[in-house]
Amino acid sequence: MKSKMSKKYQLREPRRFPLRNASKRYLKNSLLILLASFFLIACKKDKDPAPAPKAAPKLQDLDSKFAVKWADKTLYVIRFSAFNTPTYSSRSLGYVGLCMYETLVAGDATHKSMSGQLNGLTLPTLNVTAEIHWILALNAAQDTLIKLLYPVPGNSHRFIHESIDSLYNAIYEEESDNIAKETIDRSIKWGRDVALAIYNWSVTDGGDKGYSRNFVSSFVFPTGASYWIPPTRGQTISPYPLHPFWGDNRTFVTANSNLPVPAIIPYSTDTASPYYKIYKAVYDKDKILTLPEREMAAWWGDDPTETFSPPGHSYDMATIAARKSNPNIVVAAEAYARTGMAVADAFIRCWKAKYTYFNERPSSYVKKNIDPNWQQFWPEPPFPAFPSGHSIQSAAAAEVLTAVYGNNFSFTDHSHEGYRRYDDVRFLDLRYPARSFNSFWEAANECAYSRFLGGIHTQQDNDAGAAQGKVIGQNVNALRWRN
Can you give the pLDDT at residue 470? Predict the structure, then answer.
C-alpha cells in the first residue's frame, strides 16, 4: 500500500555526482578561493603598509632603570667570580662606572667627558648628528667591558657570562623592536668602541689581571715588633699578604696619586703610650659587645668570599640612591662613575700606606702584650692594618655621592637583609636587619666604626682612612663633570 504522506514531507535520497565531476568542481573552487585570498592580501598591503621604524628614545627622556640593571649585574659578577678581592673589585668598578658614563655623555649637552681629564685617558668621539639608541649603546658597552674584566676560567664559571648574556639579550630584544638597523648597528658599535678604549687604557695601570697574582710568594716580609703577621683565623688563610704592590698602580685622578701617606702613631709597649692605648681600647670593647654592635660589624664585614666586597657595597649605595630618586640616566651614570673611581683610587692609596708601614692588627698586639688567649670577633683579612680599607673607601664614596644626591639623603640599605651565617658559633644569633641612614656620611662613619667593633682595626686606622678617603672623593668631585 502506497504511503499517503504528501510529497512535501517525503524523504529524498541525496543527489549523487560522479567522482570525477566532484574533483574538478573542488579544484576549481579551491583555485578561486586561493586567488581571492591573494587579492585580499595584496589589497590589505596596499591599504596597511608596514610601519616606518620608530625613533630611538631621547637621552634626556631616559630614567635610571637600565643603568641600575647593569650595576646590579656588575655586583652579581663580582660576588660570584673567582676573582673577588677588594682590590681587584674596586679597580673593576672604577672602569665599569666610567664606561657607563662615557657611553652616554656624548649625547648630553650638560655633562662633560672625562677624556683628557683622567690620568692618560683619551676616548673616541661620536658624530652626535647621527641617531644613537643610547640604551642599546649602554647595553653593548657594559656587556663588553665586564666580560673583558672577568673572563671565564675554563668552564667552572661559565654561568657568569651566561648571566651577562641573559641581561644583554633581554634588553636588546626589548629595545631594538622596530628600530632602524642602521641605528641599532651604529649604537652597538659606539658602545663597544667606548668599552674597548677604556679596557685598552686599563691594561696599562699596573693592576691588569691582578687576580692572577693575589698572593706573591716572593714577597719579603719586613722584620720588627710592629709588623703584620698572617692571621690564624682569617677570611682567607694565606702565608702571604694580598696584592703587596697594589699601591704602585696608576690612579684614575692624577691628584690622588700625589697624596701623602698618612702619619702613624709610633710603636710602643708602654701601657701609658698612645700606641698601647688604641689597641687596649679594641680589646676592652670586644669584651662588652652587644648584639646590635655585633650585627653592625657583620653587616659591613663584606667578606669577599661571601658578598660583593666592601667597594661593591659602596657601588650599591649609588644603586640605592638611583632607585629612590630615579634621576635621569646620565646623572645615575655620573654617580656610578664617581663612586667607582673614588673607591678604586681609595684602595690604591690605602695599599700604598699599608705596605709602607706593614702595621700589625689588634690580634697580634693584644696577644703579645695584653691577653694571649684573646680572639677578635670578626675574621681578619689577609693584609696589614693601617689604614682601614673600609674607612677610606666608604669615606671616598660618601663624598662623591653627597655631591650628586645631596647631604640630607636618607635611605635604607637592604643589601644583606635576612642573611645568616652558620660557620662560627659567634654568628648564630645574628639576624642582619636592614639599616637606615640620614646621609651617606652617616653610613660611612658606621662602616668605619664597624671595623673597630669587629676587632679588626684600631680607631687610628679608621680616622686616618676616613680623612684620606674624604680628600680622594673631593679630588674626584673637582673634575669637570658639568658644562
Answer: 98
Q: What pLDDT is attached to residue 50?
A: 62
Residue 312: the pLDDT is 98
* 319 vs 303, more confident: 319
User: Helix-strand-coil percent breakdown of the chain, rounded to 5?
Assistant: 55, 5, 40
Q: Which three cell numbers stand for residue 72?
A: 646590579
Question: Cell for 387?
Answer: 689604614
Could you tell me the sign of the dihedral formed by the alpha carbons of 385, 210, 356, 477, in that order?
A: negative
Query: Three-class SS of residue 242?
Result: strand
Instruction: Give the position of cell 641581561.
Output: 167
pLDDT mean over 27-32: 51
Above 70 in pLDDT, residue 10?
Answer: no
Q: What CATH number does the domain located at 59-202 have?
A: 1.20.144.10
Residue carrying C-alpha cell 658606621: 446
Flag whether pLDDT at 274 surpasses 70: yes
Q: What mean pLDDT is predicted for residues 447-472?
A: 98
Averaged pLDDT, 82-99: 96
Cα separation, 98 vs 137, whole angstroms? 14
* pLDDT attached to residue 422: 81
Residue 411 backbone dihedrals phi, psi, to 5 degrees? -165, 165
Residues carrying CATH 1.20.144.10, the chain = 59-202
Question: Looking at the domain 218-477, which fold is it?
Answer: Vanadium-containing Chloroperoxidase; domain 2 (1.10.606)
Which residues in the chain are classed under CATH 1.10.606.20? 218-477
pLDDT on residue 45? 47
Listed residue (343, 262, 342) closest to 302, CA to CA = 343
Residue 308 has pLDDT above 70, yes or no: yes
CA distance 381 to 235: 5
In the predicted model, is pLDDT for residue 29 greater than 60? no
Instruction: Give me the mean pLDDT over the 421-446 stretch.
Output: 93
